[in-house]
Structures are given as structure tokens and as C-alpha cells.
Design brief:
The structure holds two protein chains of two kinds. Chain A is built from five helices and five strands. Chain A is an alpha/beta fold. In chain B, the strands form three sheets. In chain B, strands 1-2-3-6-7-10-11-12-13-14-15-17-18-19-20-21 form a 16-stranded antiparallel beta barrel. A three-stranded antiparallel sheet of chain B has the order 8-9-16, with no helix packed on it. In chain B, strands 4-5 form a two-stranded antiparallel ribbon. The chains are: A alpha/beta, B mainly beta. At the A-B interface, helix 2 and helix 4 of A face helix 1 of B.
């Protein structure tokens, strides 16, 4: 019984340690954001429809506007599959994305998708400056869900 | 609250709307796709259904030379393209197209394809009526995000009235200067001296060739340029005479802020020039067109104006008098449809257009246009002076009802017989229902 208690204490102490290790994981920015926001939202874009690009940016902006700032709502946009076009360099929505980034919204793009795109293009596409590359977009969403983020797919 | 289908709205934002905005960089809107957001194939189009009625005035002879024509009807008072009756319904345009980026991951290329199914000068040729005619078929290579090379069949970089998407204009018919100097008819000598007939479709302000175009932005200034080298044969895609046209275009735009794409709030000044030759009756004749214009749109008011000059191959109008057996409801067309072109003459004209958007449902416009055709030859001189009053009601951003009333006047100041004929020009009322999808 004493051993089980010690084990629990050790595991509890290891959680922040593991978090530290997770934060130091440089293979794709998979760290869980440190936020005090009561509301945590991950917006998924995985559709090829260009209108969905506009829609996800609209939702990001509207949610942020509703709650005021990112101290009250934490928002991350995760793009994978055909939706990753949103975060490729040169996208017509870049100025708007930059404004949302400046307001504290994070944008993550799937590395697996970029790798697949590389095969089709013959070169690796560049992403918008400020966009974070995560190893796998779907996994990123799952990870955030497990830590309290709610997924919205406009 | 108006509900707008997202894709239709995206199309309208890209190409224009039915609000009569008319302030846009048409080179970019028509020749490129927004990078990173274009679909592989975006289907779009529009339909224009209209009713026209022209005051079918008769010739009133005032000189002996026109006595034989007294009481006759004239062809310019008949509804185009058939020109056999002075009133009637028509599907003026019915176009369907597809545009996009064939490989969406790569922003380097985009395409534009458009076909006409309506009844107009594009589908009506000397060989009868075509079921369908391709009006645009182009591929654009984006050298950089702001400089492009376009190849294929597409609009010539000329003045705003000719280059803008037709479905955004509140006016149903063109000004006399644009209609006669820029909307090219390709003619061949007729059976009678001084007469001609059409070959193929009207030029539709388009040509087949290559165009280098682009934009420079400096603060609130946007400068655009275009250089096009083309067949000089309108939409008939092939080259028939070995001559080529060169068209140059420059626009400087002050961005007022607000609006975007076809809604953009701006003041634009532009100039353009087109040089080429045309083969007519076995000889090549120079053909030059040039214009300077200005467009203002601030989201509520629109002002457009353009001055155009023409040198060589001046369109000399329809063979104007209906046959003697014509009735009020049926004009018997003469054997030769047109007057022979004025191969070495000149013309000039201009228009001013004022528009006001009352609210999202209603807008009104008024336009005055003037054309002097055949200015080097006194007896060939024809003067056209027209007022057009326009109103539009928008059911939604895709569908509108337009009403135009044109007060048409024409004179032949140094040719009394011709003056009696053109003096019979009647006013024209047109109602058009348009849907963009």
C-alpha cells in the first residue's frame, strides 16, 4: 500500500516533468499551450473547398471577437489534408492570417500533408511565416482534445 | 435577410456583381485566380433574358434625294441580332464557363473557359446561327504573384466599357462609340457597290494571342499594365490575313480603401492603344484605336468616362433601309447587310456615365455618349448623340432586373439624304432579367 502511494506521488511529480519534456519536443511544436483561458477551441480545416478557408478564418475571428482576447479563449487552427493549402506561402488569405496571428491565434499545419505535397510538387512547399508545423494534424487535434480543447470544423 | 450561396458570392466577388460597381482591376480579375484558394474547376455563368422595343419611326423625306424612301422603315430600329422586328423577347446572353487552377497545389497556372449559348452577334454569323460559341479559352502562367503571361482567346486590354464583365453593367446596350469603334465587325464586299456583309462573329472585344500583364503597388497606388499581341480576328480564333494587332494598356489606380475586387473603391485613370491592319477587298488597311478614361467608385457613386479615337477601318453602319415590302412588324433586310467600311477615315467619341446606389436593392444611372464617325469625309460624317437612363432592382446579389431607356439621335450634317434616314432613329426601351450563378 505504501508502495502504491509512493508510486502515485512519483507519477504526480513526473507529470510536470513529462510536460517539460513535451515542451522540449521540437519535432513539430506538439507542446500543449500554457493557457489560463476558460475556453479552448481547435478549428479544423481539412477540406479542399476554398470557401472553407474563408469560413474557418471567419469563425476564428468571430470567436475571438466574442470573448475579447486570447486570455479568455485559446484558439488554434489546424490544417491538414487538402485544407493545408490555407497555410501555404502565397495564399491570398495571408494578410488576414497574419492579423489573426498577431491577435494570438495559432496556426498549425500537418507535416505529413506537406510531405505528400512534396511528392506531388517535386519540392517541399513553404508555409506562411508564423505557421507551426506539427507532425500530424489529426494527432494534434486529438492531443488538444485530450487536454480540454473543443474541436469545431466549420 | 438575403441568403447568398457561398460559391456564388465567391464568384461574384471574383468577377463582379450585378450592383453596377464597375471599379476593378479587370486584367487581374479575369486573367488570374486568387493564389492558394482557387478550385480545380469552378463552374459559373449567367443568363440575360430581355424584352426590347424600339420606336419604329419611318423615314420622312425632306429632300428630293430621299423622296423614294419616304415612309420606309429602317434597320437600326429593329432588334438585334436578327434586325427584322422592332420589338421582341430574346435570350441575349447565356454563358457558362469554368475557371480555376488545374493543379491547386501550384499557384503558377490558372485557366479560364467560357462559352456563349445566347442569341447575339457572337452566335449569329454569315453562316447562320451557331448553337454555341467559345468566347474565352485561356491559360495564364503566373511568372510572379504580380506579373503574368496569358495565352489564348480572351478580352483585349482596352477601356472599361469593353473589358469589364458585361453582367455587372447597369446598361444593357453599349455606347455608340464602343459599339461602333471597338465591337469589331469583320466585313467582306457585298454585291452592291459600297456595301458589305459580315464574315464570322463580331469581335466581342476579344482576340486570340498572348498578353503580358501585371501590377505594381506603391502605398495606395496600384499601377497596371498589359501588352497583347494577337491575331486581330476577334473570337474566330484563327488568323485570316497574316496581320497582327498590338494592344498596350496602362492604368493607375488610387485605392480609396473599402470594397474589394469588383466592388473596390477606387479612382482609376487609364489609357490604351491598339494598332493593326485589316485585309479588306484585297488590300491591307491600317487600323488604330486608342482611348483614355477614368473611373470613380466609392461604394455609393460611380463616375465613368472615356474618350476614344479611331483611325482606319471605321465601321460605317448597317445598310439602313428596310425593303419596300416591309411592314411595321417585319423589316425585310436588304441583300447586303452593311455599308462598306471607311477604310481610311477617322472617328472619335466619348461617354460619361453617372451611377448612384440608392440601397442594396436599387441603383440608378444615366449616361451620355457621343460619336462622330467619318470625320475626314464630310459626306460620310455621322453624328450620334445618345442618352441612356437606367435603373436596376436587385432581387439578391445574383439576380437583377434592369430597365434602360435610350434616347437616340443621329445626324448626317453634310448628306441630306442620309440625314433623313438617320433622322428616323427611334428611342429604345429594354428590360432585362439577369441571373448569375
Amino acid at each position: 500500500m505504501y508502495q502504491q502511494l509512493m508510486l502515485r506521488v512519483l507519477l504526480t511529480l513526473m507529470l510536470p516533468v513529462s510536460a517539460v519534456f513535451a515542451a522540449q519536443d521540437m519535432t513539430g511544436n506538439m507542446e500543449i499551450p500554457d493557457t489560463f483561458a476558460n475556453h479552448k477551441v481547435v478549428l479544423q480545416i481539412s477540406d479542399p473547398n476554398p470557401f472553407k478557408q474563408t469560413l474557418v478564418l471567419n469563425v476564428a475571428g468571430n470567436v475571438l471577437k466574442h470573448y475579447g482576447d486570447t486570455t479568455k479563449v485559446d484558439i488554434e487552427v489546424v490544417a491538414f489534408g487538402p485544407g493545408a493549402r490555407l497555410l501555404l506561402k502565397g495564399n491570398a488569405n495571408t494578410p488576414r492570417i497574419k492579423r489573426l496571428m498577431a491577435a494570438g491565434i495559432r496556426f498549425s499545419v500537418c507535416n505529413n500533408t506537406l510531405t505528400n505535397m512534396s511528392k506531388k510538387l517535386g519540392y517541399r512547399p513553404q508555409v506562411i511565416e508564423g505557421a507551426r508545423i506539427v507532425p500530424a494534424g489529426a494527432v494534434r487535434i486529438l492531443q488538444l482534445n485530450e487536454h480540454g480543447w473543443i474541436t469545431i470544423k466549420p | 435577410m438575403l441568403k447568398i450561396r457561398p460559391i456564388a458570392l465567391a464568384t461574384l466577388m471574383t468577377l463582379g456583381t450585378t450592383t453596377g460597381a464597375q471599379a476593378a482591376n479587370w486584367l487581374v480579375l479575369q486573367g488570374t485566380e486568387a493564389p492558394g484558394t482557387a478550385k480545380r474547376a469552378h463552374v459559373w455563368g449567367f443568363i440575360q433574358f430581355e424584352y426590347s422595343q424600339i420606336d419604329n419611326k419611318k423615314i420622312k423625306s425632306t429632300v428630293p434625294a430621299s423622296a423614294a424612301l419616304d415612309g420606309r422603315y429602317i434597320v437600326p430600329n429593329q432588334v438585334a441580332p436578327d434586325l427584322t422586328t422592332h420589338s421582341g423577347f430574346n435570350i441575349k446572353r447565356a454563358r457558362i464557363g469554368v475557371r480555376g487552377n488545374p493543379f491547386p497545389l501550384d499557384n503558377k497556372l490558372n485557366y479560364f473557359l467560357l462559352a456563349e449559348f445566347g442569341n447575339n452577334g457572337i452566335t449569329n454569323t454569315d453562316k447562320g446561327r451557331d448553337f454555341v460559341k467559345v468566347t474565352d479559352a485561356s491559360i495564364t502562367y503566373n511568372i510572379t504573384p504580380n506579373h503574368h503571361l496569358r495565352a489564348g482567346l480572351f478580352r483585349l486590354p482596352m477601356g472599361d466599357e469593353s473589358i469589364q464583365a458585361i453582367f455587372i453593367s447597369p446598361y444593357i446596350n453599349y455606347t455608340a462609340v464602343t459599339n461602333q469603334l471597338l465591337l469589331e465587325r469583320f466585313l467582306t464586299p457585298g454585291t452592291a457597290p459600297g456595301k458589305a456583309n459580315r464574315v464570322g462573329s463580331v469581335g466581342a472585344f476579344r482576340d486570340t494571342g498572348v498578353e503580358l500583364f501585371g501590377t505594381f503597388t506603391r502605398g495606395k497606388w496600384e499601377h497596371s499594365y498589359a501588352l497583347m499581341y494577337s491575331n486581330g480576328n476577334g473570337i474566330d480564333m484563327n488568323d485570316t490575313d497574316g496581320n497582327r494587332d498590338t494592344t498596350l494598356y496602362w492604368a493607375s489606380t488610387w485605392l480609396l480603401g473599402g470594397g474589394k475586387k469588383a466592388f473596390r473603391h477606387e479612382v482609376k485613370a487609364y489609357l490604351w492603344r491598339q494598332d493593326g491592319k485589316r485585309l479588306y477587298n484585297g488590300s491591307n488597311y491600317n487600323r488604330t484605336r486608342q482611348g483614355v478614361g477614368i473611373t470613380w467608385f466609392d461604394g455609393r457613386y460611380r463616375i465613368m468616362g472615356e474618350y476614344i479615337e479611331a483611325d482606319g477601318m471605321i465601321f460605317n453602319g448597317l445598310n439602313p433601309v428596310c425593303g419596300a415590302s416591309s411592314t411595321a412588324d417585319h423589316c425585310v433586310r436588304p441583300a447586303d447587310s452593311f455599308n462598306a467600311p471607311l477604310t481610311k477615315d477617322r472617328a472619335n467619341g466619348w461617354y460619361v456615365d453617372l451611377g448612384y446606389i440608392i440601397n442594396p436593392r436599387w441603383d440608378v444611372s444615366v449616361r451620355y455618349d457621343s460619336l462622330d464617325r467619318g470625320t475626314k469625309t464630310p459626306t460620310a460624317l455621322r453624328e450620334f448623340r445618345n442618352w441612356t437612363l437606367a435603373a436596376q432592382y436587385h432581387f439578391n446579389k445574383k439576380t437583377r432586373l434592369a430597365l434602360n431607356y435610350e434616347i437616340r439621335n443621329a445626324r448626317a450634317p453634310h448628306a441630306p439624304k442620309a440625314d433623313d434616314i438617320v433622322g428616323a432613329f427611334g428611342n429604345r426601351l429594354t428590360v432585362q432579367l439577369q441571373a448569375v450563378f
